Structures are given as C-alpha cells and as structure tokens.
Amino acid sequence: MSRSYKRSFAVTTALLPTWIAVIVIYVGTMLWSIRLSFTDSTLFPSSNYVGLSQYAKLFATPKWWAALQNVAIFGVLYVLGCLVVGFLLAAALDRKIRFESVFRTIFLYPYAMSFVVTGLIWQWMMNPTFGIQASVRAFGWQDFSFDWVVNPNLAIYAVVIAGIWQGAGLVMVIALAGMRGIETEQWRAAQIDGVPACRIYLSIILPQLGPALAAAGMLLALGVIKTYDLIVAMTNGGPGYATEVPAKFIMDSLFQRQNLGLATAGATVLVLTVIAVVAPFRYAVHMRARRREGA
C-alpha cells in the first residue's frame, strides 16, 4: 500500500463522522421537512398526505406575500447599502489615516454583535417616545419627526438602516484587504497622470475588487434569506405586516399556530430560494476557475 494511499485513507476516515453528520442531520432533516410539507401535520407530524394543499394555502395567505415583498426590499437595499458603505469606509481607511486600527475596530465592531442586540439598540434609538426624535425635540426642534419604526410605510427602511449599520463592517474588511493587495505601481502611475483619488478608486481599484465584493455580497444575501432575529428584536414584524419576513412567518406558523405542514412548506420554499441564489454564483465561480486552468 503506497504512502499517498494511506494518507488519503486516513484523511477519509477522519472526515467520515463529519460526512455522516452532514448526511444524517442536515440532508436527512431537510428531506424529512420536505416530506412533512405534503401532509396535514399540525402540532405533531402526520402521515396523511394532502398533496400541494399546504403550498396552495401558503401562497393564498396575504401575510406570506407581504413577507416575500418585505424580504425583497430589505435584501436589495441591505446588500447594496452594505457594499456601498463598506467600500467607502475601506477607501477612507486605505488612505493611511491616523489611528487606522482604532477606526477599523470601531467600524467592524457592530458586525461582532448579534442581530438581537442590534435590533434592540435601533429599536430604542428610533422609538419616538425616548429615542432620537425625543432627544432632538428636547433641544427645541418640535417639528422634527423620526418615527420610522412605528410608521407602516417606513418601518422596513428602518430595519434596512440597522442592518447596514451592522453588515457594512464585513464588506469594509474584505474590501480593505483587497485594496492592500493591489500593486502600488498602479497608484503611482495614476497619480503621475494626475488622476483624482476618487476616480482611481472607481475606475481602477473597484473593478479589481469584483470577486471580493461578490463574495461579500453572497454572504450578505444568504443572511437576508434567514433574517429573523433582527426583525423580532426591532419590530416583531409590525406595525401590521410592514416588516414581516418569511423566516418569522415560518416560526410563527410552527410555534404559535401549531401548523407544522404550513411551516415546512414555507421552509421548503426558502430552501429552494437559497439554492436559486447560491447555484448561479457557484457555477460562475466554477467556470471562472476552469477558464483559469485552461489558460
């Protein structure tokens, strides 16, 4: 038996428990959940199959459509906002400012916090009774209004602000690492030609950060699909259905309404959504790697 074969066998044996856990725990429970979505399960699992009736009920529920609309609005604004703000922060820190490590820690710190803490902080700050609105009015601006968190038309945008505040630090770190890996000769050549710094970042630096920003965007997008704790801590889905999201709809169906079949139907739709988001990105990365190998 060759040494390479022994090493491969040892590695495979060491990873065997992990593969078993993935197959049994993750894949197994996912398939079991999909199976339950075709039954009339309520508080306890049932073997009484009802076909696609749970999915028909799901998409006939106005609250589910409101949740889909809200997560789409939140997802687009959250991902784009984090990418823009994170890139701008990285560009500012890349200028070799004083106390860079301090600012980098400050900007990254919100990402280390849980979404529950973030939601509670911003829920307090946007509360019209004792938050920013009350503080500004205490200084004499009685007409100032910042009641987004209780406004049905603006509540989802309040959640977006809180999400960007937390997620922009991740993009900043990834973008800053990419900027520091770019050759300094490009900077010198552009500066000799008299190109402004903002034009250098937009026309030279930004295109080279495409893969890094795409990876950051993918991480943020996956977080959007499973958004739950930020919504619960900040608005609890209200006012009305203004900030309802699919993950909260699923949890409410499972624990409050004891409708296991409807909850697993919603979870199955979310799984398919994750696959639809991840699969094109993974395919693009795979094709890019193959082109590099072919070159």
Automatic annotation (TrEMBL):
InterPro entries: ABC_transporter_permease, MetI-like, MetI-like_sf
Localization (cell): Cell membrane
Domain of life: Bacteria
Chain ranges passing through the membrane: 12-34, 71-93, 105-125, 154-179, 200-225, 260-285
One Pfam assignment: BPD_transp_1
Keyword list, A-Z: Cell membrane, Membrane, Transmembrane, Transmembrane helix, Transport
Record's bilayer topology term: Multi-pass membrane protein
Listed PANTHER family: ABC TRANSPORTER PERMEASE PROTEIN (PTHR30193)
Protein name as annotated: Sugar ABC transporter permease
Origin organism lineage: Bacteria, Pseudomonadati, Pseudomonadota, Alphaproteobacteria, Hyphomicrobiales
